[in-house]
Design goal:
By secondary structure, the protein is an alpha/beta fold. It has one domain: 3-Layer(aba) Sandwich (Rossmann fold). The chain has eight helices and six strands. The chain has a six-stranded mixed sheet, with helices on both faces. The longest helix has 27 residues. The two termini are about 30 Å apart.
């Protein structure tokens, strides 16, 4: 996966994304330090999400902001859309620029690339391990599945061996995607949740729990969820 992205001319949205990624690539790269977690935040930006994208985009932005506000984390934004377009930002500890980028992203018709996202996450995990660091979690936000569930499960198994849990958030309840997302979470000892406009508040709590887990581990997660709602405890009980 090219962290500078694929340049396709004639599209204002893509030019804006390209400009951001070129600028971000010049910024100092974050060096993992003691006590810092690393979280990959990945989202589906294909046309199947177009009808509810504006609403979902607000929820995604709030979810991402919840991670950024926690601190103690380096975050990487990954998204896919169109015909094979899949991009990953540099790792950053200051999230406002990434949040602005996410708000610029619009849906483009194409197939899901979940397997590619998981493959990228595995490569990042191996690279981090070579430096004595780790990728603590992958958050994935999407709605459907348009690729082989077996291939996705195979990549999830690879992440499980690397110790990277997947936290899958599904917009809606398309059954094939639901089964695949639940399998990703189960195989990696992560968690699954569905969402809509009515569940935004709980999702923010749950994502904060994921961020706390990435930054502080199971004990920090247990302390946080013990103070939350019964529904939050039910969701976080899937983790680990």
């Amino acid at each position: 996966m090219d962290k500078r992205g694929n340049t396709l001319p004639g599209n204002t949205d893509r030019r804006a994304v390209d400009a951001f990624l070129r600028q971000a690539a010049l910024a100092p790269r974050q060096v993992p330090g003691a006590g810092r977690g690393r979280l990959i935040f990945a989202m589906d930006a294909t046309a199947s999400r177009g009808a509810s994208w504006r609403q979902a985009q607000h929820i995604q932005a709030e979810m991402f902001k919840a991670v950024a506000d926690l601190g103690g984390l380096d975050v990487q934004l990954v998204f896919f859309r169109g015909m094979g377009e899949c991009r990953a930002s540099p790792w950053v500890s200051e999230a406002p620029a990434l949040l602005r980028l996410m708000r610029q992203v619009e849906c483009v018709g194409g197939h899901t690339q979940i397997e590619r996202v998981l493959r990228h996450a595995a490569a990042e995990a191996r690279e981090a391990a070579g430096r004595g660091a780790k990728v603590n979690a992958l958050v994935y936000v999407g709605d459907c599945l348009e690729e082989s569930a077996d291939e996705v499960a195979g990549r999830a198994g690879e992440l499980a061996l690397l110790g990277v849990p997947v936290f899958a958030f599904q917009e809606g309840a398309e059954p094939n995607a639901k089964a695949c997302f639940q399998a990703m979470a189960r195989l990696t000892r992560g968690a699954y949740a569905s969402f809509d406009a009515e569940s935004a508040a709980l999702l923010l709590q749950f994502l904060t729990a994921v961020a706390i887990y990435a930054a502080g581990g199971q004990r920090a997660l247990n302390d946080y969820s013990a103070k939350g709602s019964a529904e939050l405890r039910r969701l976080t009980s899937q983790i680990g």
